[in-house]
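Its record is retained below.
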Amino acid sequence: MMRIFVAGGSGRVATELIKDLIADGNTVVAGARHEDHIIKLNNVKPVHMDLHASMDDLAKLMKGSDAVYFTAGSRGKDLLQTDAFGAVKTMQAAKKLGIERYIMLSSIFALQPDMWHIDGLDQILDYTIAKYFADNYLVNQSGLKYTILQPTNLTEEEGTDKISLDVTGVTSNPIPDVAKTLAEIPKHDNTIGKVIMMNSGDTPIDAALASVK
């Protein structure tokens, strides 16, 4: 099993993700600005992480990891330093440390500016732009074995363990399904180098990921 670093480890998705990663036998180092809010489980080590810190300081927290998840978000309060450049610094730290596998939690259509003014996205334009710059760096400049997951609106509903990768507009995803999809991604090498859009659907998560080409 792997030692996994989760950036943004106190968030709603991260909390469910950490549960799934631990259930699969992994160990987790979870970084957050408020590390006391990170879920308390065996094999989870909470660490203080400030995405305003230098890349070298972030690398010290990530050292020894086999993979990195970026699930951090400022909820619109610190888009440049957290959602955009904070993410980039974790990519640079991973590259410096030789951690190849990097999984980004992004947002639907973040790499498609022509979609940003559709209903449901026009209200979060600045956030989507921040994710655009982070995703674009990951794809084109990081040199990492990345996967970007772009869900639609997150909802606090019970998970179904079923999703769809056929996304044409802004719908919704239960948070547990997003977390489970993130947790399953490293088991599918076919997801490396892919940007995956998802919403609620009828396909079991494992089968949906296996179908990614």
Remarks:
- The radius of gyration is 16 Å.
- DSSP finds six helices and eleven strands in the chain.
